[in-house]
## 1
Amino acid sequence: MKTFVIALLLQLSLFADVSIGEKAPEFMLGSMDSQTAYSLNSLQDKVVLLNIWASWCSGCKQEMPKLIKLQNDYHSKFQIVAVNIDKNPDNGLEFLQEVENKIGYMSHFINLHDPKKSVPKLYSCMGMPSSYLIDKHGIIRDIIIGSVDENGIQELKTEIEKMEKE
Amino acid sequence: MKYLLLIALLFFSGCGNHLVRVQPYEKEYFAQDKMKLNPLDERAEQESHIFLIREASAGGDSAFQGGCGCR
């Protein structure tokens, strides 16, 4: 019986996904230019939007200009942490450069590179791109699977403003 | 033995989704142009046009039409 319970617990642990209201799993990654390492804990006093993206993902192309604009609108207590999962970081950098040239201003994200895809595995990423809105206490407040459209950006703005006041 | 079998079954059913299914973040190579069924859009269009002339029928080249030419 004991073995059975242990096996059942093991089985259930395989289905463990992150969900809204839970503590965001901690990670540490290097930046895309391999110069600095960042951890999620270091951004505790900010509202964070963790965005998992890749240069080969068509949804990422659609949402990236909107996210760059969102970061520029809310730069004081809000930070977008963009985790690129391309094998080659140059592809991601080229993609960002292209988007920045197109919209005419720079992105102010924390750009991290995760070629081993440890963050999407840790967060049980269900689609590309995926975004996780994390409050100042490190609690996941919203999960967005797929690209964010204009309505989604408006909803995010409302949430961010609410969370900044908390 | 019965319990062991049950445990093994439960265990592997849990692994199935994670090991067999290609996760969305693992599709880097699938997203490449060379992985398309028709890598060259222009060529696919030409081939479709030639098929239409040769067979004297329209349709049949997609999942939405029956191929009878009657649409």
Note: Chain B touches chain A through 17 residues (CB under 8 Å).
## 2
Amino acid sequence: MIPEAVLEALERVGRRHRRISRLALAVQSLIAGWGAAAAAYVLYALAWGRPPVWIAPAAFAAGALVSFFRALRPPMDPLGVARLIDARLDLKDRLATALEWGGRRSPLVYWLMEDAAQHARFVKPEAVVPWPGLSRVQRLGLAAAAVLSVLAWAGPLPDGLLVRPAPPAADAVDPEYEELLDQVIALREAIAAIPTPEMRRLDRDLSQLQAGLRDRSFPQDEALALLRHFERRVQAALAGLSGIDSAADPLDLEQLQELAKRLELVALVREEASPGDAGSVPPLAGRAASPDELPQGLLDALLRSSGDARPQPGAMPEGAGGADPAGDAAEGGAFAVADVPEDGAALPSPGAVEGPAGPASQDSGGERDGAQVSLPGGPGEPGGSSGTGGGPSPAGDRGSGGQDGTFEAGQGVRIVDHVTGQLGDGPLHIGRVNTALPAPSQAAEVPRLSGPLASGAGGFSEHGVGRENVPLVYRDAVRNYFRSLEPGEEP
Amino acid sequence: MDETQLVEAQGKLDRLRRELGKVIVGQAQLIEETLIALLCGGHVLLEGAPGLGKTRLVRAIGQGLDLKFTRIQFTPDLMPADILGTHVLLTDAEGRERRITFQPGPIFAHLVLADEINRATPKSQSALLEAMQEGTVTTAGKTYPLEQPFFVLATQNPIEMEGTYPLPEAQIDRFFFKLLVKPPSKDELKAILERTTGEYDPVLTPVLRRDELLALQRAVRQVPIASHVLDFVVHLVEATHPSSPRATEEVKRYVRYGASPRGAQALVLAAKGRALLEGRFNASLDDVVRVAAPALRHRLILSFEAEADGVEPDRLIASLVDQARKEVAV
């Protein structure tokens, strides 16, 4: 028989426990809802910008409900209340044991009931279930969270950190990127005609840079740095190729590009112009240059530098470095560099000079300025001018040719001056002319004074094949064809 | 036993505690745990360094309880018959009739002090097994019951290993408690010196009669215990087994075998005995917690790794008690 005092104590404490538990649950749910609303608002604002109106109430309701149902417990049974009293008031499990052993009859159980009833009379519900309090740390934490949430609510937040910027339209043009892209393309074109392994590697790297610029995957600053790096490599490679270090060093990129364009033009010429074809230049590989692309100072420097490094007469330079003058239909100035024997003896007959005659030779335009290259062939002679070895390919000027050269004794060739003049319509095609003219005493020993650019055909073919414009199955055939164009090769 | 008698017996236990305090300085916990074992009818293994008063404590208990007390000094040449007794040929006074009679050994007493029990051979140690567990002695095919209460207090020296025979686990498990006798504190040592080096010779008066002790032992078994306290005991004992899901990482690492059901029985009984000793009529969680170490420390068989790491059973038990307490918390 459980004493009434024990049951009454359990009832009082149980009632208070239920009441305070519900109150604590409500407060806890409100706090959780507030926290959820603040967090949802801030996170949404940070991620996607200012949230819609329903976000905060929805998050509040969700947080409050989740907290409520997670913390919801069934009411404590009497045994639980008895254990709670025993634990809080240090009753050594008297009430719980009395409640469990209430139906048994034993002297000790009887004494236990008496003992439990005596202790139960002094049980105060407030002492067992006090108002839920918070520790100092908890209070501070709660206050800080409340302040932060209010600040986050009212304060300015960066909008939409996770919102990705709209991708640029496909046809949108970024001027800076386009400019870089143009530079890369120009540089690639400049080095395309120089079939050296270094240039091929550069071209491959540039192609990757070009692709990166095209799809905007390269950051602009990195692309610019890479471009500058490649330009320096091109500069160094060109200097090494043509022995024009002294001339190339002070050149800037623009000049280098100019130079490279001319080198390409030179390399494109494969067809050897014969004296009989004077005045008619075979169509070349489609590369034409306007007179505006011919900076006289640059070419002069290059030609002089190249002339200084010219090999002995009779030796055909292998380098393709040189500049090619281009003629414009209206006033394209052609120039030539001639090597004139010291003693003013006539140069070999024009027929012996196999320099390609440009179209300018068909239309003797007016002479603009500068000295002309005077070849003994005189006007009307095709191929009346000759370029320096590996240097510029001059266009003969048939109508206005004159002799205004200086000669140095004992030297086979030397740069005299530019030849300018009116050229005919159409693009000016330039070939390479062997200008390694012999001294008069050696003239008979020199079989020819100029040669075609056929020696560059192999590199050109490799370059073309390397561009993969040629189907794989035809590449060998293309290589063989161009190899057959090399001097001394059988067609 | 009615309430008056019970309360009177509880008062006598308090008096016995005070009487023991005359002889034993300090060691209050040791005395309390010894009395709990006595109330529960269990045997006690006292372990401690020499000179800490183990034998003196047992002697004092014997004097204070007004019980028949014997002492067996265990030595390597001690034979079982020296403990249990033997059959001897006796002749009557006239010398006509001779008969073989059983001469009971020192084990036939209420309170047996088995001093330095680990110095005897296992054969002699095992002679105590039946007496301790069954309360009987069987010799020459005849079983002799031991008079109740039967209470064995064995002592052993943990530091002297030369020439000793460690008790087998089966015999250790039969001890209700294993009590550690700790060195006295500075003040206690000073009091010991004052009492034992002067003329003071305390004489203990018997406080508790045999029938009263038996009544108390019966009352202990009637002490109510709540179900959550039993749950606590179950959780605690279960957690001592390395294969149990309740076992902690420490238990899995350091314990080879956990406590037996006899250990759980000892826990509950000891909790009841402590409650009665404290003047309460129900066993509580606190009672179980207080008796957990003496009831379980000799029932945890530790691994070699535990010995290598210096892990004590008491530390493991303390952590298991905390864990079990959380499991049954309100």
Note: Residues 4-48 of chain A form the longest helix (45 residues).
